[in-house]
Amino acid sequence: MYSLIVVPPATVPEDPGRRDRLRLAPGERLSFGRSPQGDGLRIAHEGVSRRAGEITAQGAFWLLSNLSREQTYVVENPEGAGEHIKVGPGRLDAPVPFEFSRIVLPACGDLLPLEVWAPCHEHVRFEACDDGTATAPAFSLDRSKRYFAVLAALCEPRLRGAPHAPLPTVEQVVERLRPLWPAASRTAVQWNIDYLAVKLRLKPGPDTAEPGPRLNGKKESLVSLALRFDLVREDDLTVLAAPLRQGVR
């Protein structure tokens, strides 16, 4: 039973599709670099250190050692819409919790992706019980309402695999929602963005707000919160293909 699947970067331009997958069992190590030790993964790029690093398989996670002298490695979670960790030069056995990861190796102006697939995490199976008062939800969102479609449209570019993509403008959100919401307008979409900022407690309601400047980066703050706490997941993008419930909210 293997624990990790490692997909090497394509370093040969004329043959980018030839990327043999490597499998590691729990406890096994894989060195990588331009001239790795033993049966390690050779990455034929002059900008990669001879001994660039080492991957160690564990149970539900894996470890990354950065053996370079100067380069910091970034480990991205492509499913986390911008979630990442940094492993500095010389750092040994940094734990990586992502099920699907992309190690980004900077190499003479190139960014080489080294993909790592880890085992799926196990989760508790919750059973229904009536032995107490239900816990109030941290964020109360109705996925059938128009404000949620607006939030999903804002999050869509980063959920589609581009974690650093610029957020859509209000006009782009209007165009994205118009097939589902023919009366969509810039004013209506902006109203829903303002409503979400209050509903998700990014700013106080109009009855309690003190005079002062408006919230800067409102869209960025909404998307950051939504993606950080999984308020909008990739599966939720199906709301952008279904008719929206009547009412601005």
Feature tags:
5-stranded mixed beta sheet, 4 helices, alpha+beta, elongated
Strand tally: 11
Classify the beta-strand content into a percent band. 15-25%
Dominant shape = elongated
Poorly predicted regions are: 12-18
Distance between the termini: 50 Å
The helix/strand class is alpha+beta
Series of H and E elements = EEEEEEEEEEEHHHH
Biggest sheet, spatial arrangement of strands: 2-1-11-10-7-8
Tell me, rounded to a whole number, the average pLDDT. 83
Written description of the protein model:
- By secondary structure, the chain is an alpha+beta fold.
- Helix content is 19%, strand content 20%.
- The chain contains four helices and eleven strands, in the order E-E-E-E-E-E-E-E-E-E-E-H-H-H-H.
- It has helices at residues 146-159, 170-177, 186-199, 218-228, and strands at residues 4-7, 22-24, 29-33, 41-42, 53-57, 62-66, 73-76, 84-87, 94-96, 100-107, 110-117.
- The strands form two sheets. Strands 2-1-11-10-7-8 form a six-stranded antiparallel beta sheet, with no helix packed on it.
- The protein is elongated and about 65 Å long.
- 26% of the residues are buried.
- Mean pLDDT is 83; it is low at 12-18.
- This is FHA domain-containing protein.
